[in-house]
Amino acid sequence: MISIAAKILYLFALLFLFGCGTSKTISRKDHLFGQRPSKIIWIQIAGLAEEQLAMLRFSSAEAIALTNMESMLCFGKAWNYNLLKVRPSARDGFLAQMVGKGLINGNCEDYKLGPLWKYLRASDSGMRAGIFETSSESNLYSDLTKCSAANESGFASSLFFWEMMEAPSLETKTFHSLEKTIFSTPSVYFDKSCKGNNCYSSVLENINSVYNRFVTRPKERFLFIVRDFNYQKALAEKNIVQAKEILMELDSVVAYFNNLIKKDDEILLLVTSSGPRPFEFPTEGKEWAEFDLKGKNVLYRSTALMSPVFASGARAENFCGIFEESDIMSRIITDPRKRTISEIFNDLF
């Protein structure tokens, strides 16, 4: 039987270790562990494989400058398969991420599941939620309007939507990147700059404008989701030049939000992919030059089974490692259990 003196010595040793040996860094960067995020910014990029960041990295003369996604705190990989398909679509994959379930059927029944914003509001009724979509491609808002199940379950209840596509009628609400009006009422807003398939405001300009009119108070609690399927579409069309331009702008969006984290330790910035479309890069200089300028010399592969996850800010530590994409929601809302000194003391005595 352990003596009281031995237990006390053991306790003091634990106190010493906690005081001197606790790691406060991730990837050699300072990090506050266990911080609950009250502000969640989630960027979803369909089709992205992490190796494709080389398109941006190798555009610089020295090819050593980190992209903004690379500079994020944690990197993980998410299995994309679900209980029904080995290679589900990016649309189904992102839905699995947002509802925390692996059983996605690809039909209206999926919208009977409870999304992340419902769980957040259950514990914080003041939590606001909005979704910015960069095009009509695989558009969540359009899907919801076709499904009575979504209305019955309240899947999109009290959600803001901002759509980078032409307004369907004169009666619909709109936004423009140059406007200053605050978004106070949950609704669907269409981009005034869009005519047909073209939008004259850039994704970065729109997100900057919309975000600052959606988040207007320092202590605002919110979920802000950016969804992009343009990158995946460019890859599917084998338009490497356009894909690179889209990825460059999305990386600039990441930079914009990364700067906010430096001023607010309650922000979680998350970048996820689904349905990644990997390809083989050229192997030599001349081929690479043609690839970079004209999108030539590319060998496309099947959709990968795993996709990248990048995280910075509050609770970013939950996204290091390998996990299923349906676990992403729980990693946003769940704290890893911590053993306090009092718990250890109670176990000993």
From the structure above, extract its key features.
disordered C terminus; two-stranded antiparallel sheet; alpha/beta; 349 residues
What does this structure look like?
This protein has about 350 residues and is an alpha/beta fold. The chain has one domain (about 25-340): Alkaline Phosphatase, subunit A (3-Layer(aba) Sandwich), CATH 3.40.720. About 35% of the residues lie in helices and about 20% in strands. It contains twelve helices and 16 strands. It has helices spanning about 5-20, 55, 90-100, 115-125, 140-145, 150-155, 205-215, 230-235, 240-260, 285-295, 330-335, 340-349; strands spanning about 25, 30, 40-45, 75-80, 130-135, 160-165, 175, 190, 195, 200, 220-230, 265-275, 280, 300, 305-315, 320-325. A ten-stranded mixed beta sheet has the order 7-8-6-5-11-3-12-15-4-16. A hairpin with a 2-residue loop joins β9 (about 195) and β10. The chain is globular, with a radius of gyration of 22 Å. Mean pLDDT is about 85; it is low at about 340-349.
